[in-house]
Known about the structure:
Elements: H1 11-14, E1 46-51, H2 69-72, E2 80-82, E3 91-93, E4 96-101, E5 107-112, H3 126-139, E6 150-157, E7 160-165, H4 171-174, H5 193-197, E8 207-213, E9 217-222, E10 237-242, H6 246-254, E11 260-262, H7 268-274, E12 280-295, H8 305-314, H9 317-323, H10 354-363, E13 370-376, H11 381-392, E14 396-402, H12 405-414, E15 422-427, H13 434-442, H14 458-473, H15 475-492, E16 495-508, E17 511-512, E18 530-531
Parallel strand pairs: 1-10, 13-14, 13-15
Antiparallel strand pairs: 2-3, 4-5, 5-7, 6-7, 8-9, 9-10, 11-16, 12-15, 12-16, 17-18
Amino acid sequence: xxxxxxxxxxxxxxxxxxxxxxxxxxxxxxxxxxxxxxxxxxxxxxxxxxxxxxxxxxxxxxxxxxxxxxxxxxxxxxxxxxxxxxxxxxxxxxxxxxxxxxxxxxxxxxxxxxxxxxxxxxxxxxxxxxxxxxxxxxxxxxxxxxxxxxxxxxxxxxxxxxxxxxxxxxxxxxxxxxxxxxxxxxxxxxxxxxxxxxxxxxxxxxxxxxxxxxxxxxxxxxxxxxxxxxxxxxxxxxxxxxxxxxxxxxxxxxxxxxxxxxxxxxxxxxxxxxxxxxxxxxxxxxxxxxxxxxxxxxxxxxxxxxxxxxxxxxxxxxxxxxxxxxxxxxxxxxxxxxxxxxxxxxxxxxxxxxxxxxxxxxxxxxxxxxxxxxxxxxxxxxxxxxxxxxxxxxxxxxxxxxxxxxxxxxxxxxxxxxxxxxxxxxxxxxxxxxxxxxxxxxxxxxxxxxxxxxxxxxxxxxxxxxxxxxxxxxxxxxxxxxxxxxxxxxxxxxxxxxxxxxxxxxxxxxxxxxxxxxxxxxxxxxxxxxxxx
Length: 533
C-alpha cells in the first residue's frame, strides 16, 4: 500500500492552516497575480468564492491533491459520495446508483447511472469508468494508492462495472474520495498536466469551465445537459477568485464581492470580527481533521517513553480548545477524531497534570530540566506559546520553530536524528476511515513520509494491516483492532493529540442550503445552494 503514497495526500485538503503545496509540474505555472478588488458584487445567479494559490497547481483530477478540489468538486463527480454528518447512510449514490460486494470483499459490482454525458460530449458508461480508474492507477499520483487493490476491471454491460481486488478494500468509500476518484472522460486518457493547466476539463458535474485566467480566477458555468437537471434559483456561474492576502479577502467580503471564504484564507480572528457583520455569517461545524504533535522516537530525549509521557501530561489541552480556532474545537480521544468510525470511545489517557509530568522527567533523569524544539505552522503560534508556558513551569525549555509546512517538512523527514523533537501536523483523511490516520502517521516506513515521529512497532503495523483487511468482511473486528491500535499508541505516548479541529467558513448571509460535509471540507457543492430572493 505504500508504493504510491500521495505526495501531500489529504493533509493538503485542510492544509496546516496554510498552503500545503508540492512543486508544480514543469508545464504548470503557479499563480503570479492575486485577484483584485475591482470585482462587482455577487448577483442572484452568480456566486464568488475565494481559493488559495495552490488551487491552480494541478487541475488534473487524477493528480490534484490540494485546494484544486474546492473547484473540481463542482466540475467532476465520483461513483459514490459521502453524506453529511447525521445522515441515515454514510455513503450515497453518485454516478453509480447501487453497488454490492462479495462476502470475501474481493469483488465489487457497481451499477451506473444512465443518461449522463461528459462535458466534451462523450457518453458516461462502464468503459469510461474503467479507463478513468486505470488512468489514475497509471499516473500514480495523489491518493492513487487507494486503488492498488484493484487488479482487474470488467465491464459486462454498458452500465455495470465489476472490480476484482487482490485484497479486501472498502471500495464504496474509496470511490467517494475527493482525492483521485473523480471520473474523467475517455477522450482525455492521454492528456497531461499542461492540457488541464490550459483551462481544459472533462467531467460530468453540474458546472464546466467557462473562463480561466491563470493567477487570478477560474470561472465555471452551468452545464446545460447536466443529468440532475436545473431549477430556477440555482447558480449559473461560480467565480473562484485566487487570494493569497487575508486582508484583501476580508475587504472583499465586507464589500459583498465574495460569498464564501474559509479558515485557510482568513484567520479565525478575522472571522470573529466578521461574524455579525451585516450580510455575513460565521458557519462552524465539526470536521474530521485533527492536530497531532508527533514526538521523535529517533533522538534523545524523546526516545525515552517517560519523556514522551511527561510531554503528553504537560500539554494544555483545555486551554488550547478554549483559545484556538475560536474555541470551536473539541478534546481529542486520540489519533482518530470524533465522527470517524473506529475512534477509541475512551477519553484520551493523558490530561494536563504538571506534577505527574515533573515526576516522570525526574524518573527519566531530566529533573534539572531539558531543552526541546517544536516545529509548527505560524498560525498555530498561540498553541505553541501555551505549551511553552506550561513546560517552563517544570523546567523544560521549548524552542519554537514556526515555518510553513512546505519549508519544514522535507528536511525533517530526511534526517530523523536531527528532526525536531515535536512536529505538529494538521491531518484530514483521503477516506473517512481509521486507516488513513493510523497508517499515514504511525505505520513504520523505510523512507518517512508523514510518520514524523518515526514510530516503528511491528506489532502495531501487523494489527493495522489486519484491521484494514477486516474492514469489509468483519467491521466489528476491524473496529476492535483499530481501537486496540490506538491504545498501543497511547501506551507508547507516540504523539500528543492536541485538538479535533472544527471547520470554519464565512458565508454571505443570503446563501441558503450550505451544509458542512466533513469528507469534503471547504468544498461547497454550489449546485445545492441558492441565494435568498
